[in-house]
Predict the structure.
Amino acid sequence: MKLPVYFTLALLMLCSIPVRARTDSAGGKSSAEKYRLTSGSALYKGTLVSSDSDGITLALFNPSEERTFSHQDISKMERFAGRRSHWKTGALIGAGAGIVFTTVMFIADEANNDPVDDFIDSAMGWDSPGFKIFMGAIMGTAGALVGSLVGLAIQTDRWEETPLIGNPDRNVDLGFIPARDGGYLTLSLSF
């Protein structure tokens, strides 16, 4: 078995991972101001300008304009709750890929009937079950590292549903805002 070739390929794959910098998709605006709401079948994203008994006014991101939505037209309103990376999922997928790669590598080596290669494998201990498990762990760990880096680069927005601000049909709204230290209960009264 030619292990240095496999390690060289793994190193080349590791070095070819694209890494991107974090950017704020709000166009420089504070992420706490971003809202999205559903009106009819359309989804609108923007910053909250005002909210009163007539409706909710958003400064939309695309197209760049202010628009007022009546409370009756809004079916759902959500507040931006930050960005989320997927490093755990990437690590899990990468570890699985590393273990599968190692398994395929050893199956292909067993299918090779070269007596010189078999002699070298036997003399070096590369055909022992312990070595195969060790290599599976090493490649699984390397795959988990690569996968977590890829998952870290992939980020998505998190949104949490909020009660409709200033809705004249609601007098009391109770909500929950998740946070790293547990969360906060919110109580909204309108008169």
